[in-house]
Amino acid sequence: MSTTVSGTAPAARPVVQCEDLAVTFATDAGPVTAVHGVSLQVAPGEVLAVVGESGSGKTVTAKSILRLLPETATARGTILVSGKDGTPGENVTTLSAAAVRQLRGRDAAMVFQEPSTALNPVFPVGWQIAEGLLAHGMTSRREARAKAIEIMREVGIPEPEVRVDHYPHQFSGGQKQRIVIAQALVLDPGVIIADEPTTALDVTVQAEILDLLRRCRDEFGTAIILITHNMGVVADLADRVAVMYEGRIVEQADARTLFASPTQAYTRQLLDSVPRLGEGLARAQERAARRPEGWAEQEPVVEARDLSVVYPGRFREPDFVAVDGVSFAIRPGEVLGLVGESGSGKTTIGRAIAGLTRVGGGSLRVLGVELNGVRERQFRPVRSRIGFVFQDPATSFNPLLTIAECVAEPLVVHGRARDAHEARQRVDELLEAVQLPRTYGDRYPHELSGGQRQRASLARALALEPELLIADEPTSALDVSVQARVLDLFDELQRELGFAALFISHDLAVVDMLADRIGVLYQGRLVEEGTGAEVLGAPKDPYTQRLLASLPVPDPVEQAARRAEWERVRAAGA
Amino acid sequence: MAEIPTPTTPGPDAPARRPSRWRRLPVVRQLQQSVGLQRGMLVAGLVISAVFLLAALLAPLLAPYGFSQLRSGDRPFGAQQPPSAEHLLGTTVGGYDVLSRVVWGSRTALLVIIVAVAASIVLGVVIGLLSGYFGGWLDRVLVVVADAVYAFPSLLLAIVMAIVISGGQSDMWGGILAAALSITVIFIPQYFRVVRAETLRIKAEPFVESARVIGASHRRIMGRHVLRNATRSLPLIVTLNASEAILTLAGLGFLGFGIEPTEAAEWGYDLNKALSDVTSGIWWTSVFPGVAIVLVVLGLTLVGESLNDLADPRLRTRRAAAGMPEPMAGAPVVPGGALDAGPAGLSGLEPTEGDPR
């Protein structure tokens, strides 16, 4: 394993030095080695990004630095964590429990993925920040509180004197992540381990958190080990990148070098599968050119006029308006992409079209049936003409049925076949259409990988040859390389079968690859709608502009320019 | 959250390896998973339960006499005879053979368990499924009723049921049904709650929504998608409830609401009759039925508790991965020379095993 560090050769002692780390888990199926002989070095004030797909061992590697692995894990090798002041480190794998407790927080701290679960909901945030200080020898509560207020100001929480006594639920997701970072920063550790710190956040918030992490490095001189699967985040923040695959480091290089000239095939493949903005333009133009005359006058498959969906509030609380006066249309064979942050109402629109959520107001016509006030009995025949692909392939299959039985389900329900056995012929055809071997029909869902399951899910949605397909974040639970394959397949099938589609995603680049037109949702309203070229090329709405500017692109040089643009947009908005 | 390493899925050419049907059966699978103390507990419980089951099934062969037999040939057994070659465990105050009564008693206990558990499972699962799936007023009313039943003392209910069902006469099936149905009433809420909670969870799962999107009927969704996924934890409750059923039956018999000795053998009844013997030093009439009750309850509880522990990945112990033929780190890089207890060797591995939180 090569451990050569190109570019920034650290003169000072590395804050983390990890040699030949191997981690083995005891599982029901026998021992599984998650990390094989990983060697890493992190210099003071350096951002090392560890990238890789799920299961590549990146989180396990990072957690073993703080010895946060579950009881079933056995770690071998040496991990030296040095103090920020240059005190030599000790081997974490063999240290006593008490010494590890001392080291956590003081020399190395952790920022977790999901800020809403990393904070204890029953204590004020100030107390939680001070807890670390008190655990590491500070005795005065008053002093700890003052320090907590100071660090909250540093991470950009407005009015920290007041907010210090607030509880986690009183903060937004981005603010919560700021507080988690404050918690990590308050003891001034040499290194912060950030495990997917922005994955649970929206793109616009992500940009701000990345900015804060950059300040941690520049102003506090803290080194950061950034674990992520998002190449855009890597390009934005990292100085050096380590690419992990199946528990090994396949490549380690300077960020710019890695993006410009990756030496390993796996790294190249990983970078190639990242969707980039603007790739879909050609495809959309090609599709538009092939459309027959008078296509625009055809009756739309879906037509929404002033559609609103309201979730009733709890006792004495106001109702929650998830979708507020949205109008759009999807014509036959057209792909409409809906983008928006979490809570913007994009999933609700998809569910309303599929008849899973009641329409609150306005009009929603799907395949000629008005859904406002519809009865299930009237809508059931229409259901055979709609396909739905769910976000999480792991839970959208009944775990007790085989893939063939799951795919046959729509055929059986609508009387095209008496049972799964009779439908097998058609199921095999469908599996082949989504590029799965026929024999996979006899497997159970858990025996397939995420990408394979999502392809089977596509096969099930297409079983009845629907005129409309609704895909709700179909690739957000998948790794990038798998995502690329699923998106290609989707595009291919759409061209072949010519169904209309509503494609819902939070990722602009993904939507851009597939959609003819893009709708941008913000707080339940459709703020902008148009072709890919219109929306992405010349966004008119300030929110769309902000969304576009905060999207990190997987190229460090271009991203540096975009960051400047983002700061300008943000300054203008403030 | 710890990232759990998943084994890579086999390629298209690799045959899908799945354990045989026999190995996937509820108890057999857990037995294979278990190690150490948990395995010991499970095996002990299974052995005791198997002995109980065999005794119940083979009672006519195993017992030297009938449960209501008072004489062999013309000669009466005699009351309160100490253990001898003829009567291995002695005779009771009524002149019955203790060993025969204990063996035959297992048959009564088994019948009560079967009737009680079968009735409460069927009713509890159906009501729980409907209540959880449809929700609304039906659900609210059923939950309140279930809570009310929880508040009822089970033995009191059993006494009332015994009077209602058998009208004071205590023949074999009257006694068994009285005990079984009173237990059923007590157990239905347990199955109801478990199945309802599972149904509520599964109802929100995407695979149920996908069935709804397809246009499947409620009946099909409930039967094919929800029910089969909602019954995973039932084997645990069954074993725990079975032991409770035996205790209720014995309690009824002890209080005099049991089965007449001429109709069937019942441990609680024998214990009741042995009360006066205890003070006069006649130990064998009370000890053996008592031991039978304790052993069966212990066996079933051991099985239930071990299944419970094994079902939870956090409580399940696994074989440690320490003894793996994994290449050790060659020369540990430590500034200032090697450590005395380096990570090369088993002793060096010990402190890293647990997470000392």
TrEMBL record, chain A:
Membrane topology summary: Peripheral membrane protein
UniProt entry tagged with the keyword Disulfide bond: no
The ABC transporter domain, residue ranges: 16-271, 302-548
InterPro entries the UniProt entry points to: AAA+_ATPase, ABC_Ni/Peptide_Import, ABC_transporter-like_ATP-bd, ABC_transporter-like_CS, Oligopep_ABC_C, P-loop_NTPase
One record GO biological process: peptide transport
Single Gene Ontology MF annotation: ATP binding
Record localization: Cell membrane
Sorted UniProt keywords: ATP-binding, Cell membrane, Membrane, Nucleotide-binding, Transport
GO CC term (a single one): plasma membrane
UniProt entry tagged with the keyword Transmembrane: no
Taxonomic superkingdom: Bacteria
Pfam families attached to this UniProt entry: ABC_tran (PF00005), oligo_HPY (PF08352)
Family of the protein in this entry: Belongs to the ABC transporter superfamily.
The name this protein goes by in its record: ABC transporter ATP-binding protein
Native source species: Actinotalea fermentans
TrEMBL record, chain B:
Residues in ABC transmembrane type-1 domain copies: 106-304
Low complexity bias locations: 326-346
CDD domains: TM_PBP2
Keywords: Cell membrane, Membrane, Transmembrane, Transmembrane helix, Transport
Signal sequence annotation: none
UniProt lineage: Bacteria, Bacillati, Actinomycetota, Actinomycetes, Micrococcales
One Pfam family recorded for the sequence: OppC_N
SUPFAM superfamilies: MetI-like
UniProt keyword annotation of Cell division present: no
Protein name as annotated: Peptide ABC transporter permease
Stretches the record annotates as Disordered: 326-357
Subcellular location: Cell membrane
Family label: Belongs to the binding-protein-dependent transport system permease family.
Gene3D superfamilies according to UniProt: MetI-like
Transmembrane segments: 41-63, 109-134, 141-166, 172-192, 234-259, 282-304
Annotated PANTHER family: D,D-DIPEPTIDE TRANSPORT SYSTEM PERMEASE PROTEIN DDPC-RELATED, OLIGOPEPTIDE TRANSPORT SYSTEM PERMEASE PROTEIN APPC
This protein's GO CC annotations: plasma membrane
Membrane-related topology note: Multi-pass membrane protein
Taxonomic source organism: Actinotalea fermentans
One of the GO biological process terms: transmembrane transport
